[in-house]
Structures are given as structure tokens and as C-alpha cells.
Amino acid sequence: MCVYDASAVDGRLEWYLLDDDPTDPYDDDKPHEECGVFGVWNAPDAAALTALGLHALQHRGQEATGIVSYDGQRYHSEKGLGLVGEVFDDARVVAALKGSCAIGHNRYATTGETILRNVQPLFAEFVFGGLAVAHNGNLTNAATLKRDLVRRGCIFQSTTDSEVFIHLIATSRNATVVDRLIGALRQVTGAYSLVALSNEAVIGARDPLGVRPLILGRIAVANGETAWVLASETCALDIVGAQFVRDVEPGEVVVINDRGVKSIKPFAPTRPRFCVFEYIYFARPDSVVEGTPVYGARKKIGAELARESPVDADIVVPVPDSGVPAAMGFSLESGIPFDLGIIRNHYVGRTFIEPTDHIRNLGVKMKHSANRAILEGKRVILVDDSIVRGTTSRKIVEMVRAAGATEVHMRISSPPTTHSCFYGIDTPEREKLLAARHDVTEMAALINADSLAFISIDGLYRALGQDERDPLRPHYCDACFTGDYPVPLVDREAPQSPQLSLLADMHAA
Active-site residue numbers? Predict the structure, then answer.
């Protein structure tokens, strides 16, 4: 059952989905996106650039979006529920966000409800002036910190873990905003990248293991000056005409102001554990993450999958859109022709159709349609990036069979997802993960495929250029495949009072 909450927004009563129904035909049964952050300093059209950057990062969060700008005297804010093009659909809205510096955020909720007060950037007035914060990731000790902050008299206005940063900064005894933020970062554990906007600077930070991405770019503006950009991915630089400078390093804080970019490294160096799922699914294919082009990485993963799990077939078909590069790599390596046997409808939104059992069974066709002319009479290899609950995979296999395929073999360009993510990716509880409850043979039967195979964890590392004999492995955070959580799960592991348990439940991804 879907659980909804009603909130009044501008005098209107609106309903927001709180709990995803695994049988919802409009749920694409993927690990849902994290969030996207963007910031710019010293650009005359900072808010407009931020809106464009958020458009490019729309794939990282579609529930809500917001921008906060600063004009040297006042902060301006616009936030709303929905896509970037829906919230910032009027040029006058963006024009009202005055100033030469701004930060923005696209949200997919991994903590807290989808209601307006949880939409970022979060803003507060402090003794040193205003500060806005936008955050991608999850804090694994947020509930513990929140309990302590509430005992100290802090009043939380949202249910998102990002507000912990605001209260840690507010209660700090440090003199400068940068020192206050660093003090907050020293108290949190988790996976995060964030951008912050103060009266004096735009600030970016990554967690010590660099699990979540953040990059730095620059734009040449009038009079030979430079505008600086922070973003989750390089595709956001491309849309605003910015030049990539470098990745913000794990554990690094960058302070951008009129004097340029200052790097601060408040944490002891440690071995990075960048999220491997960025290469498999999350990052946009035209982005470059941690020096590696995503599109090429996905083709290499597909080629490795073909070497590991070959099968006689007539055609390789991607499950669009995220399965396309891996399917191309599989086709090239195997010599089996690639074709678009499934067509995706890109214009699916929320539906007003009552989701009866019959409509639920048809619902997958709203997003995917079988190309009968390509599939009929063929032995088909379907290539997708992941299987989470398996509900959509089963419906797609059935759809391909109904279009006349004589065999359907499923190949997945990630290892089996056996563990939940607590670092900013919304995955179901472990008992709802198909691979946590069944072996591959059982999974194949459940999705009605003639065969099913996943790339191995060693094969994934080989495709990404990492030797399985490397003593420094793993190079990435691969907890969703291995259960090896590199950041302590403080809230989940600590003994909890009933009140803290409630907060942890609210926080859990």
C-alpha cells in the first residue's frame, strides 16, 4: 500500500508519496538516485547558471529542487517539489534570484518525507550572517547527533539529516564560518558531498573516503575574471560552458571567494572508497567521474560480462536507457548483433489511472514497449544494470516473450545487490532485495528467464582497470554487493533508546 501525507502549499492541499509500493508499476525497480549539488561564485547570472546545472543533474534527483543566491546584501531562495523545469519554469522566478553567487540542489529523498520543508538548500541566519547548505549523501550518525542536539535545545524544522549540519554550525564556538563547518564535518560520519553559501564564500566538501562525487570547474567571465563552479558531475560543467579543473579530493574542503580557491584538508589521509555504482548506473553516461569516462566504463563492463557469461543467442537488447552502453559492450565482445528491441517512453509521469490489479500488470508498458519486429522468433539477451526487487525484470521478460522471443536470457552489468545502501542511495531493506533471499538459479526462475547471470565482483574490478590481485582492493565502496561497509553505521549499530530507534527508522535509507 502507498502511504501519503497531505501538506498545505500556497493554500493548496497537496499529497506526497511517503512509502514506495513495490508493486507500483511506475516504480522502475532500480536503486534510486542520490542527490545533485551545484554551486557558482562570481558569475553575473549565477542563479541562471545554477538552474542549468541542476537541469544537467536532474537524473540524480527528481522529487524536489531549490536554489539560494546572495547579492552581497540579501539572500534569495526558491524551492519547490518537482523537476527543475517545473519549479523554475518562469524566467521571472530565476531573475528574482539576484546575485553573483548561488548554490542549488536536486533531491531524491533517502531520509525524511517529500515535503517542502525538507527541500534543499537549507538556509539559516547565524551570528556571522546567513548560510545555505546543500548536501548529497547520508550521515550514518545523524540520529545520534540529532538526539544530542535536541537535548541541548536545538529545534529541528525538517526531517532530513542535512539539517544536522545547520545545528552543529550554530552551536560551534569557532569564530569563522569555515572553521564552524569543519568542526561540523569532524563530528559527522557518513558519505557526503556538500556545497555551502555564506556571505563571503562558496564552500565545497567531500567525506574522507570520497564516497560521493564533487568536482571543481571554472568559467571565463567579463573583464578577464573567473567564475568558479562546484558540481556533482562534469555534465553540469558542460551545460554552463565551464572547464573542468579537478575533482575535489576525498576529505577536502575548498573555499572559493574573490581571492580564488583555497584548499583545506582537515582529515588524515585514508584510502578512498568511491561509490562503484556511479560507474554502473548513477552518473550520466557523458560524465567523467574520478578521471574515468562513464560511457566507456559501462561498455567495458558489458564486454567483461560477455566474457564471463556467454550464451548462444541471435540478438543483444538493452533495457533502456541505463542498459544501453553495457549492451553495446556485450554485443561487440560476443559478436552478437545489438538492436533496440525495447523502446522506452520518456514522457511518463504520475498517472491519474486507478492502479487496479489489471492496470498494475500493464503498468510496465507505460515505460517500456516491446519492438515486436525485432524480437519475434529471436533468442534474446536482455542486458540491464541491476536487479533490486525483481518486479520490473519479471515484467520485461514477460513482455519480450509476449512479443515472440523464443528464448530470453538476462545479463546484469553489476554483481547481485545483496545488501542495502546507507550512504545516500535509496535501496529497499535487505529482506526485500531479491538477491539477498535467492540464488541466481532461483532468481532466473522467479523472473521467468531461460538463464540469468551477473558480472562478478572481480569482473567488475577488471573492467574498471583494477587487478583482483591488488592488495589494496577494494578501491571502491561496493557494500551493496559485498556487505563491506567502509563507513561505520553508527545509528544502526549503537544501543538505542525507543526515541533514538524512532529517529533511526526515520533516517534509514
Answer: 35
